Amino acid sequence: MNKNVTGKDLTKEAPRSPRIRIGGYIILGRTIDKCRALVAGDIGEYHFDCPLDNMLFGFKGVNGSDFKAQIESGASDQQMAEWLDGNGTEKTPEEIKRWSDETEAGNRPSR
Fold first, then answer.
1. pLDDT for 50-97, tens place per residue?
2. How far apart are CA 69 and CA 65, in angstroms?
3. Which distant-in-sequence residues (6+ apart) come within 8 Å of 13 by Cβ?
4. Which residue, 21, 53, 75, 111, is the most exposed by fewest CB within 10 angstroms?
5. Could you write out the DSSP letters of every residue in 66-101?
6. H-helix or E-strand containing 107?
């Protein structure tokens, strides 16, 4: 538990909708909220590195433990989008938009 990482207390409020985009990526805001809550010890009934998060991780070719390490270092939402851009499989802005649009249209589960 790292109380130096702050974010939503998911025992009291829900994470962001997976439809909210950060840096063009769908799911990213929700994944950030869940990871910060996990690190801070406030995740409640939610799960980080779940199938939904892994849709994003799989698209970019990154893993949950590397993502979590960035959150533990105190990275902001923008820094997480930049980290995602710079790690894993290289994607153009057009590829990110297409994937986000197609994923959103698929009505994926929210946890």
1. 999 999 999 999 999 999 999 999 999 999 999 999 999 999 999 999
2. 6
3. none
4. 111
5. HHHHHHHTT--HHHHHHHHHHSSS---HHHHHHHHH
6. none
Burial of 61 from C-beta contacts in 10 A (0-12 / 13-18 / 19+): exposed
Torsion sign over Cα 75, 79, 84, 88: negative
- Tell me the pTM: 0.91
Per-residue pLDDT tens over the stretch 5-57: 778 999 999 999 999 999 999 999 999 999 999 999 999 999 999 999 999 99
Inter-residue contact 22 to 96 (CB < 8 Å): no
